[in-house]
Specification:
7-stranded parallel sheet; globular; binds iron/sulfur cluster
């Protein structure tokens, strides 16, 4: 573990023309939009890694977090038409459209009775055919089955949809969900905030201000949340940094984000299949710049399902301190061509963290330590 740059790393960083950014980081001075764009532009990935790794190790040393969780995607029917999405189907009855009965959805958790998981993660399409009670009963059903589980459910996009469809404010939506068992919300649906890219990617779902407002209300009500950025489709580096700065500004205000999760674009089975997927180089660079720009968010997570296990392992030296969890049954990115397994066991997660020279620590959703592996 290092918290200061060695002479060689320092030379490398300065040789890459990043001495002024290093000096700012040394002095605890916040990076600007221009700094972020320059970091994205540097071809010297080793210099970038040295800076990002130092920030990671200042916070967490060698510790790398993971958890034991299960994903439930109860329906893929979705009124929205995000062009990068391979998971959704527009209408009930369309080929490959599905909506689980409550019994089926709760059954995903029931099937794991006796297993040491700590979290259920629920994300769905925006289904026009379901009543509000479906979502409340889903949470109640899971809590009845496993009161010990933390339920992290419904992206800001879904919360906004619930508020509009069922005629409530964000606060009313949250209060009813909390009563039914909601523990926190995931970070999905942020995609890219900048209006140029957002208009092309996902014009018919909540805009950037709405997404941020949902999280603002969640944080005010005492819920913690995560935040994400979809990278590697049509956005520019300036738009990536703009996205990070909007998240940083809300975090200054509320302090409610736990983790930033850059999500790598996949191109299969969606309208962007003419695009190349992001390279390993671009992925590592994005994680590193995230760690350096988001000075007020504790954790940077590599979601191994989207990134691939080997690349996720590499990110642990590019600013990342969390590798997500066991997952169990993932649909969203496998429908977009992800080649990763559907699940990794606890032992496999521990081993891949150890093989990267880090110390695995099992956490719960709110980053309480469950066990040091
Ligand atoms: S990304 Fe979410 S909101 Fe957009 S089409 Fe897919 S499921 Fe629907």
């Amino acid at each position: 573990m290092v918290t200061e740059l060695g002479t060689l790393s320092r030379r490398r960083v300065d040789g890459a023309g990043l001495a002024d950014i290093r000096e700012k980081l040394d002095a605890g001075v916040r990076l600007t939009m221009e700094d972020g764009v320059r970091l994205f532009a540097t071809p010297d990935l080793t210099a970038l890694a040295a800076l990002a790794n130092r920030e990671r190790e200042r916070r967490w040393g060698d510790v790398t977090f993971f958890n034991r969780n299960v994903h439930v995607n109860a329906t893929n029917v979705c009124e929205a038409s995000c062009i990068f999405c391979s998971f959704s189907r527009l209408k009930t009855g369309d080929a490959a459209a599905y909506t689980m009965s409550l019994q089926e959805a709760v059954g995903k958790v029931k099937a794991l009775r006796g297993e040491l998981i700590t979290e259920v993660h629920i994300v769905n399409g925006l289904n026009p055919d379901l009543p509000w009670s479906y979502y409340l009963d889903l949470l109640r059903g899971i809590k009845a089955e496993r009161p010990d589980l933390h339920i992290k459910a419904f992206t800001a996009v879904e919360i906004h949809y619930f508020a509009e469809k069922y005629g409530m404010t964000y606060e009313q939506v949250f209060r009813e969900l909390i009563d039914a068992g909601l523990g926190s919300i995931p970070g999905g649906g942020a995609e890219i905030f900048h209006p140029r890219a957002r208009k092309k990617l996902c014009d018919d779902k909540v805009d950037a201000d709405g997404w941020l407002e949902v999280h603002r209300v969640a944080h005010r009500l005492g819920l913690r949340s995560n935040c994400t950025m979809l990278f590697g489709s049509i956005e520019t580096n300036e738009e990536r940094v703009d996205h990070m700065l909007r998240l940083r500004a809300l975090q200054d205000e509320t302090g409610g984000f736990q983790t930033f999760i850059p999500l790598r674009f996949h191109h299969e089975n969606n309208k962007l299949n003419r695009l190349r997927e992001p390279t390993a180089f671009d992925s590592l660079r994005t994680y590193a710049v995230s760690r350096l720009m988001l000075d007020n968010i504790d954790h940077i997570k590599a979601y191994w399902v989207m990134l691939g296990v080997e690349l996720a392992q590499l990110t642990l030296s590019w600013g990342v301190d969390d590798i997500d969890g066991t997952v169990r049954e993932e649909r969203i990115y496998h429908m977009a061509g992800a080649r990763t397994p559907q699940t990794l066991g606890r032992a496999e997660l521990v081993q891949l963290i150890r093989d990267a020279g880090r110390i695995p620590v099992e956490r719960d959703t709110l980053y309480h330590v469950v066990a040091e592996a």
